[in-house]
Write a structure and sequence with these properties.
This protein is mainly α and about 150 residues long. The protein contains 6 helices and 3 strands; from the N terminus they run ααβααββαα. It comes from Mucilaginibacter frigoritolerans.
């Protein structure tokens, strides 16, 4: 007689799910870093995350970028300083609040998108090759629901 396998609890499944998401992010990061290194692009994965925010919405402030990328303000200052040195972004004084600096992409930063975004699309295509659209939609809804539960 086969031993009975105890079904996993909801908490155990959620823990396993969170670990799997962390592992997936790590694989994606490694993949992108290899591509960046192969093509001798002077940017880190963390800088790429900042750039991706600006490709979605250019001209936002440092705190907004920090919130989106889940980084603290001091590490965001360091990342943006390095992107400025690489001439990928520029800081512009906010006309409404002069203490606030808005971060804008430069032409160089915009050009980089054409190189990097196909690699991002490629890795996500690889990850979802045998996953149907409905399962992805359900997964996004589930993660968002879990996040909302934690924010309450």
């Amino acid at each position: 007689m086969e031993p009975k396998i105890k079904p996993k609890s909801k908490e155990e499944l959620a823990l396993e799910f969170g670990r799997s998401m962390t592992e997936m992010k790590s694989f994606i990061r490694q993949y992108i870093q290899v591509k960046i290194k192969e093509h001798n692009i002077n940017i880190t994965f963390e800088m790429l995350e900042v750039m991706a925010c600006l490709w979605k919405k250019d001209g936002i402030n440092q705190q907004e970028i920090a919130d989106i990328t889940l980084r603290d303000k001091s590490s965001m200052t360091y990342l943006i300083d390095n992107l400025v040195k690489r001439q990928m972004v520029k800081r512009v004084e906010d006309e409404v609040d002069r203490r606030n600096k808005l971060i804008f992409l430069t032409d160089e930063g915009n050009k980089l998108r054409a190189t990097l975004m196909p690699w991002v699309a490629e890795v996500y295509q690889m990850a979802t090759v045998d996953v149907d659209m409905r399962a992805l939609e359900d997964g996004v809804m589930m993660v968002n629901k879990m996040l909302n539960n934690l924010k309450m």
